[in-house]
Protein: Thiamine-monophosphate kinase
Amino acid sequence: MFENSERTDLKNLGEFGLIEHLTKNIKLYDPSTTRGVGDDAAVLDFSGKKTLVSTDLLLEGIHFDLAYTPLKHLGYKAIQVNLSDIYAMNGIASQVTVSLGLSSKFPLEAVEELYSGVLLACDQYQVDLVGGDTSASKQGLVISVTSIGYASEKDICYRNTAGEGDLLCVSGDLGGAYLGLQLLEREKQIFLENPNIQPDLEGKDYIIERQLKPEARKDIVKLLADLGIKPTAMIDVSDGLASEILHICKQSGKGCTLYEEKIPIDPMTYETAREFGIDPTVCALNGGEDYELLFTIGQSDYEKIRNMPDISVIGHITDKASGANMVSKSGNSHGIKAQGWNAFKNSHS
Amino acid sequence: MFENSERTDLKNLGEFGLIEHLTKNIKLYDPSTTRGVGDDAAVLDFSGKKTLVSTDLLLEGIHFDLAYTPLKHLGYKAIQVNLSDIYAMNGIASQVTVSLGLSSKFPLEAVEELYSGVLLACDQYQVDLVGGDTSASKQGLVISVTSIGYASEKDICYRNTAGEGDLLCVSGDLGGAYLGLQLLEREKQIFLENPNIQPDLEGKDYIIERQLKPEARKDIVKLLADLGIKPTAMIDVSDGLASEILHICKQSGKGCTLYEEKIPIDPMTYETAREFGIDPTVCALNGGEDYELLFTIGQSDYEKIRNMPDISVIGHITDKASGANMVSKSGNSHGIKAQGWNAFKNSHS
Structure:
């Protein structure tokens, strides 16, 4: 990937040299950052607010494949995946820390590329990079991100507070990121078999972007606040709709009815699923990595939300004994099962 | 390592199963933890205090060698290394998140062993494990820890606030962790050459423990508070005394005079260094991983500290133009250079 470009070996910089190089352009955006990088710990001031903390680990060969993932996109995505957890609490994301384990195949220019994606995400979402760690890695690329945010106690949305009769809502559309991944994997296989064949991704920009450059739904948190709605429960859709619905139901001690026909699926996602011979609904239920927000609202908030193009009401919460069920397009009802991502079985299935 | 014991494959548990299994015994200690594991983010309440955040990445083959590192010790150390950064801010460590990347060679029992060390450290230091991430890893073991703490603004000790004439102090003794590592590496080589030879670590418990089971100096933070001393600057000794002194001098825009004869070195460290034909002072200056606290205090605090057995005054801060110098036992003065750990050159040197 870097054969023909400039190559500065990290050995010559050393850890402190690399840190200094990477951190010299960091800008701070959030007033809660009292002190960012450069000391033993970052110092943050959330006076009067609750502090929110979430963390994710991204490993080469498990969470991403550098054969088709540009490093800048990867840096951007690593931040989005984490910010999404703070938004899922109905909070304001304010800081991130980014730790990198770098194998010797990465020259400085590659790390800069990755970091440029990190800093772009920080800029676009106005969050401050306040710390991290960098190290050599004997194997592949390791990215660990911790995101920090804040919220007033009254605004925080947990997973375990959905009430019977609440409406089940989801932002955006689902299944696209999974199909983007299938496309990229298919083209990689074709390329490996015959390197002369050019990748055929024409007209598939949207779902490719859903996979490579997801956007955490900060805008939905703001929209809900503008509409005067506080969700009764909320979670982000990282492992697939089915898995997230079951988290809310299980932790709230409730059941639910989900309507298949209400699940938002983009036409390109739908068409590509058909091309692959997969049921589009299954992609939405079990595909994962969409980073949309799944939330429940009281019925009295329905009028405020029903004309919002980016929010779909897809079902409602029931009592626990009824279980978590999906009513199919043909009218049959069956139990929802989480068949999402199991990182211990294989990388993406 | 686990051939003869029970072996539960992580594939059969899945990510959620593993998380549930590992987190069911988590106890909470700190009143600032409003919500721990089990949601998108932890919720913490530091009302009126500043939030402190620090993070470290530990990678197999770079930061630890499983040939001689018991997993329980490794889990314990991973926490200590991170808490040390919060104490270095003169703060109270209150929460940690722990992310694990696990290759398929690790059965559940191995992960439990690692986690038992994490939980032991949490119990002994009264910090709450409030989140994390677990994933398969294609390569070795990956451990990423983020530590969170708090402090009143007036109590926080930065690195860049040392004043001219301040006394340079360090807790405990130095160089032991490095020599413990040299011993373990030597025995590993002997074992690899002849598996019938038993390791010869007799009488070396102290320095082996300095390497495998370091203790972050929470007690020193408390002692300083009890003595009514606020250090003018503070940092933890993770990369070696020389490197940390230079951080304080550079960031404070000052110089210093360090007296070689004042550097605290345990007799076993001294003796073992001689065995290896290394200068004990070099081990203290450049060895790293001691996790002691290096700090500066005003001269008026000298009387409070001078009889404390666990604190050594090793020099003083000068003006910037004088540079950072060490006066050797023979009375010569020469510039201090950081030759500490460079993770990009090799794993331990």
Q: What stands out?
A: Chain A has a mean pLDDT of 90.
